[in-house]
Amino acid sequence: MPGFINVIRSTLTELVGPADTAPATLPAGLPDAVLPAARAGVALLTDYQSPAYAQLYCDRLRRFIGRRGVDDALFIEIARLLAERMAYLDATRIAQLKLQEPPKKGRAAVDVRRFRCDELLSALPVIAGGPLLWAFERIGCAHRTVPIRFSNAGWWGVQRLKLESSLRHSRRLSLRYATERAWVERWLHMIDRALSKQPEAVAAMVQTATMIEGYGTGYRQGLAAWHQIVDGLAKPVFDGTLALPDLAAAIDCACHVPRDPRGDNLRKVIAEIRAGAMIAQQS
């Protein structure tokens, strides 16, 4: 019971909004060349969520200040891609963006997107989304898609967008946010490990963030493919269980494999790369 009460209390706190509205502060020592990209990231994430969320972005950037192997160009890419991934696309974000568009008339005012049921439910606070997601999975409806209309035409359309946009206050309590946070932290960790174990592959590891974008099937396939590449190639190299001198080339090859629902194409390519590395090691 105390745990349940704590969940309710934290949910209400988020729904009311964070008490700390102080602007995010960029970390000291950030290279001058990186400042424009970092400021753009702060502006994006403040609009996307809150100043506190933008501060999390700043805190994540701090780990790369002064790191050997991180030049200005690479740091700019990390700052840009980190902001893009932290501002992941969900129904709430689409509503926010639609509100910011100039009002339109007719069909141009309506934007129809198809979301999977589990995608919509995972965007709700865990206290509500968790049980609903379990129920939908039990009846086999979790993967069904539903059309969602976003329109900034007329009073009702705008009010609906404002309601959907206000759900950003509970975004950080959702299952989707937990998944995104875990991915971002793992991506940053893999960049750290590349800097230590195989610096030549750092840029390729940074660019893997571009595999994951959008929503729906494309998003899920990209996320699954990213984990396949990390688990099958990058992590074994960093752990010392796979000898792959040119990890960057292997990652680039794997990233360009056409995706399929079950990931069989990528699985085959990764197996071939690993087999080739083992043959080269034995010869």
Describe this structure in words.
The structure is a single chain. It contains 13 helices and 2 strands. The model is unreliable at 1-18 (pLDDT under 50). With 283 residues, the protein is mainly α. The protein folds into 3 domains: 1-87, no CATH class; 91-171, no CATH class; 198-283. Strands 1-2 form a two-stranded antiparallel sheet. The radius of gyration is 21 Å and the shape is globular. Helix 11 packs parallel to helix 13.
From the structure above, extract its key features.
2 strands; 3 domains; disordered N terminus; 13 helices; about 280 residues; mainly alpha; single chain; two-stranded antiparallel sheet
Would you kindly provide a brief summary of this structure?
With 283 residues, the protein is mostly helical. The protein is built from 13 helices and 2 strands, in the order H-H-H-H-H-E-H-H-E-H-H-H-H-H-H.
Write the layout of secondary structure elements.
Elements (H helix, E strand, L loop, with lengths): L1 H15 L18 H14 L2 H12 L9 H15 L4 H10 L9 E7 H6 L3 H13 L6 E7 L2 H13 L8 H23 L4 H6 L8 H24 L7 H9 L8 H19 L1
Antiparallel strand pairs: 1-2
Helix pairs in contact: 2-3, 2-4, 5-8, 9-11, 11-12, 11-13, 12-13
> Element order, helices and strands?
HHHHHEHHEHHHHHH
Shape: globular
Going across the major beta sheet, what is the strand order?
1-2
Head-to-tail CA distance between termini: 62 Å
Helix content: 55-70%
Number of E-type strands = 2
Q: Which strand-content bin applies to the residues?
A: under 5%
Q: Over the alpha carbons, how many angstroms does the gyration radius reach?
A: 21 Å
> Which sheet architecture does the biggest sheet show?
2 strands, antiparallel
Summing up helix and strand content along with how strands pair, one would put the structural category as mainly alpha
Domain unit count: 3
The DSSP helix count reads 13
Mean pLDDT reading: 89
Low-confidence stretches: 1-18
